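Re: the pair you flagged

First of the two:
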Amino acid sequence: MKSTTRMRILDYFRKHQTASVRELSSLLGMTGANIRHHLAVLELNDLIEIVGQRKEGRGRPLHVYGLSRRVLGDGLDKLAGTLLDSWLGGAADERREAGLRSVAERLAGVTDIKVPVMKRLIRAVARLNELHYQARWEASAAGPRLILGHCPYAAIVADHPELCRMDAFLLETRLGPSVEQTAKLQLSDKGLPFCAFLMVGN
């Protein structure tokens, strides 16, 4: 990011945590419209977000901005990893499978196994994308292939490879037949990691 103004805004948030457009306008000697433009660019790049509202004089409360959760970090990867260790750490294989299947069924939401395959695939991809998988499906000689372009659990999957099994259970819940993982964090032509699952039978 080349804008000195935006760097100054980010530095202000690092030191003071929050600010309104009015505060930044006064601090930087710029119009509110100018500040809003810079904030919009920072927000678009997921560097800041609206964190609350504040009453400043008369009129409606003003938005208060701060650094985004992505910039601050949230510790959810550590929490999720610790919960998995506590819950399934020493469990027998049968209990681990049952636990992962139970979580997968909750994540999967509504099951559509009685509708035609094409509808199941479209709905499964829509649900996966609600869960941030950047999913799509493609036809292959062996059957429909689901491509997961993003692993929402990438931060902990190396320590918890069982999450791939959970993904398979999630897909089976949505699609009905057995699902087989054919690629795990394999690099695409663009150099991005992806996972793939084959729908075996329908």
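Second of the two:
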Amino acid sequence: MGEMAQKIAKNDTIELLNILNMAFAEEWLAYYQYWLGAQLAVGPMRPSVADEFIEHANEELKHAQMLCNRIIQLGGTPVLNPDEWSHAASCKYDEPKDPYVMKLLEQNLTAERCAVARYQKICEMTFGKDYETFRISEKILKEELEHEQEIGDFIDDIQHTLQHKG
């Protein structure tokens, strides 16, 4: 536990740890949603979409690691049981019952938009009060915005291709 990390954070530590644990659980769910989607994807641009999903999955895993480290520094405990991730998360896991790439992309777009809102809230909560948590959440927010853009671009590209086919 980081004694100084706790002293210099000028937030309600319990509230901050709750939201960081929520984000931590969401990152694990996002990791799995991307990873599984990459395995199951079928349809147009499948190899490119699957590669993008694997890249995003790996970044979500890194986000979980960063959050875990910060939760521990602040004297908290990350969600210990994977069974609890869906209970702790507000951004929900959307199982890929339909493996068509457009459906998977739409599910992940919804998840990314939820993640963007989560990290925007953490940034607002910690700005000028907890520089380290702000720095971490700002970095993750930047990457989540990139994910949203990349997924949106895939959706646009596939829609354009399908409209102009034939």
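The chain is about 75% helix and 0% strand.

-B.
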